[in-house]
Design brief:
The protein is α/β, with parallel strands linked by helices and 720 residues long. The chain has 22 helices and 17 strands. The strands form 4 sheets. The chain has an 8-stranded mixed β-sheet, with helices on both faces. The longest helix is centred in the middle third of the chain and has 35 residues, at 332-366.
Length: 720
């Protein structure tokens, strides 16, 4: 069900920009003061039923006075509350249908579905033999679907109930209906008493025999001995007499409204319900996603973060104990290292660019069309007697699609071993994009450590009720195609320095203090799901701004997403299970765990943006490969098959998958510690003999070959 469409419908019906809030509520409600319409998560019984329920609740929001409703018990006295429910429903539904004639058919079809589902308990009853209020309720809601008859005495009251205009009219009609039923009860009672006059009671029959202690002549009445032998039958008779007495007392009241009672009792069946694989019952926990306000708060532009980093420069020492600059953003040794590595990134980017241009040209020529110009070709004139092909032709190359790339880089703690390589990969792709004029943007994402969130310049995020928890999520712009060369070089060096600061496995000859990084550059956990929500919003703006036809979004990460938590809604009163239902755009995604929710979020991202979704995971050994592989596999591999997959990965230095877990393409890249992604220099660790040199060079060359194959896979995906 498209909840956004239903929310717009509610606002249009209400003729105001009221807040429509779905949630784990047992019933709909309207906050008159704050103008908030709260709607339950109804099961999908079709659009007609949903429109009926929304229209009904908006009718209450527009036309039912809150003060009058709460004070009604003082005015109606002993009149049952169900009378008010029935007559007021008639009034508000008639008014909403008069205001919007187009919704009449929705009400009619919706109630037909509800009657067919026996929401009101009418299926096994002859409604024309039921009480007046039940017949009125069914007649007004069914609109002729269930034929209802009224007597000549009842018809004027029914007509009045069907045409009530104001809340005060509702109170007046309810009293008239109550008094009418009471009057009918008195008349029936008087008629019954008249029929009993002159009819002998059981005490006056067979008095003589009773006094003499003789048994009755007829065998219809048992003796005392016979009675003792009834056993359970006698007990059953006693229970039936008590039940009949209770029923008689209810019947004497004459004000039953079983349709109203059944509706209230069965309303829970209208709610969405889910049973998980462990047979645990409960409604899916609902989330409204991330609000636009919080999305802005968790997103930091490069200009903002640059200023924050510069402000921090005055709060840290200039040098460390060794006398080297330890502040990452201004480290001289780090700058020198960057100047050496930059040429490597450019050469890798050139390789990607050449491959991309070649495949782009192949695309254009493979779809080229040839057309006759209508002008004679002098070189073909000699063949005019036996060939009609004597005209000049023109070849029109197909126009390749315009491309764009958006990268999201995982800055979680588990990335520390490979963060240098991931950042090197991101910088290389960015340089490639600049060379071939492809619009691009790159963001880092993390939660940062809790105590570092208290930095004065980090924005405070308050998660509202039912909102997806993003309190600690930080999405920071690294670099983009909108930067000039000077700014881009500065931004690329900053990311290079951040990578050096966090690297734990490859010790450099100089020291860079990670603890001197700004809070937004610190490592935390992995808010992948929140990042996908950011991508869904950002890609729309990015694609429109650059007129892109083929957008590629890349997630550079090593692990599973964080757990998904939802802001507490104190008004929620429905039991929930493990499953979550999260609004993303105008539709819902669901899942029972964070991996499933992330996968469905990626699928929804593709639906919303049309982007090609790629995942990049870097691994150094079988253990890290297994973790990365778990993020894309279906779980169907046995141990032997998985062993073969690892062997292929080691042999080729990468593994590529298509259409897995929400990704269009997913790569697991092998990082060789002796020949990293950003290294073009052969620096053997062991060179005591010629054999050592051969082995080390073979490893180095194998890694470079793997990089070239990876480049081919990337350009295949981007140029598609």
């Amino acid at each position: 069900m498209n909840l956004s469409a239903q929310e717009y419908l509610a606002k249009l019906l209400a003729k105001e920009n009221l807040t429509v809030q779905h949630g784990n509520y047992s019933t709909a409600s309207f906050d008159v003061l704050n103008r908030v319409l709260r709607l339950p998560l109804w099961a999908d019984k079709g659009k007609d039923v949903y429109d009926l329920l929304v229209g009904h609740e908006v009718g209450h929001a527009l036309f039912t006075p809150a003060d009058g409703w709460h004070d009604s018990e003082k005015k109606i006295g002993k009149i049952p509350r169900a009378y008010l429910n029935i007559v007021e429903d008639i009034r508000i539904e008639r008014k909403i249908q008069e205001s919007y004639p187009g919704i009449v058919s929705r009400f009619k079809a919706g109630y037909k579905r509800l009657f067919d589902d026996d929401l009101f308990g009418t299926e096994s009853r002859d409604m024309n033999k039921e009480g007046l209020m039940d017949r009125l309720n069914v007649s007004s809601k069914g609109r002729g679907y269930i034929p209802i008859e009224f007597s000549a005495e009842e018809t004027p009251l029914i007509d009045e109930a069907m045409t009530v205009q104001t809340w005060d009219d509702v109170l007046v009609v309810c009293k008239k209906l109550y008094d009418f039923i009471e009057q009918k009860k008195e008349e029936e009672k008087d008629d019954s008493q008249e029929m009993d006059i002159g009819t002998p009671g059981p005490e006056s029959s067979n008095d003589d025999q009773a006094e003499e202690g003789d048994n009755p002549v007829s065998g219809d009445q048992p003796s005392e001995d016979d009675g003792e032998g009834w056993g359970e039958g006698d007990a059953d008779g006693d229970r039936n007499e008590e039940t009949d007495a209770d029923q008689k007392e209810l019947t004497e009241e004459g004000h039953e409204t079983f349709t109203e009672e059944n509706q209230r009792a069965n309303e829970k069946d209208l709610l969405e319900h889910k049973t998980d694989r462990y047979d645990r019952d409960g409604q899916s926990q609902y989330s409204s996603g991330i609000s636009d306000t919080n999305m802005e708060k968790i997103t930091y532009s490069y200009a903002e973060v640059k200023q924050m980093r510069e402000n921090l420069m005055y709060e840290v020492p200039e040098t460390n104990y060794a006398g080297d600059s330890s502040y990452p953003y201004r480290s001289t040794p780090c700058r020198e290292d960057w100047n050496d590595k930059r040429s490597t990134y450019k050469s890798q980017a050139n390789l990607i660019a050449k491959d991309f241009e070649r495949k782009k040209a192949a695309f254009e020529y493979s779809r080229a069309t040839t057309a006759k110009s209508g002008k004679l070709d002098p070189l073909k004139m000699h063949s005019y007697k036996y060939s009609e092909d004597i005209f000049l032709t023109t070849t029109n190359l197909a126009q390749a699609k315009s491309h764009g790339i958006v990268m999201y880089l995982d800055l979680s703690g588990s990335m520390c071993e490979i963060i240098e390589d991931v950042i090197a990969q991101a910088i290389t792709i960015a340089i490639f994009c600049r060379q071939v004029n492809i619009p691009f943007a790159a963001y880092s994402f993390t939660t940062t450590a809790y105590w570092r969130n208290k930095s004065d310049d980090v924005r405070n995020v308050k998660v509202a009720a039912s909102e997806l928890d993003c309190e600690n999520t930080k999405i920071v712009e690294m670099f983009s195609s909108s930067m000039n060369k000077k700014t881009f070089d500065e931004a690329a060096f900053t990311m290079f320095a951040i990578g050096k600061s966090h690297s734990m496995s490859r010790h450099t000859e100089y020291h860079v203090g990670a603890h001197y990084l700004h809070a937004l550059d610190q490592m935390g956990s992995t808010p992948l799901t929140q990042t996908v929500f950011h991508a869904a919003k950002f890609l729309k703006t990015f694609t429109k701004k650059h007129g892109i036809q083929n957008t590629n979004v890349m997630f550079l990460t090593d692990g599973a997403p964080d757990g998904v938590y939802i802001g507490v809604d104190e008004l929620a009163d429905v039991k929930t299970g493990n499953s979550k239902l999260i609004k993303m755009g105008n539709k819902l995604i669901s899942g029972t765990n964070s991996r499933e929710i992330y996968k469905n979020a990626l699928i929804r991202l593709k639906e919303m943006t049309g982007a090609t979704v790629m995942g990049f995971a870097l691994a150094t050994d079988a253990s890290s490969f297994g973790s990365a592989h778990h993020g894309c596999s279906t779980g169907d591999f046995n141990s032997r098959e998985f062993s073969d997959v690892i062997k292929d990965w080691r042999k080729n230095s990468f593994t590529a998958y298509k259409n897995v877990k929400g990704y269009d393409a997913y790569f697991i890249i092998k990082i060789n510690k002796s020949a990293r992604f950003d290294s073009d220099e052969f620096a053997p660790k062991k060179a005591d003999t010629i054999g050592d040199l051969k082995r080390e060079f073979k490893k180095f060359n194998k890694t470079k070959k793997g990089n070239k194959q990876l480049v081919a896979k990337i350009t295949d995906a981007v140029a598609a």
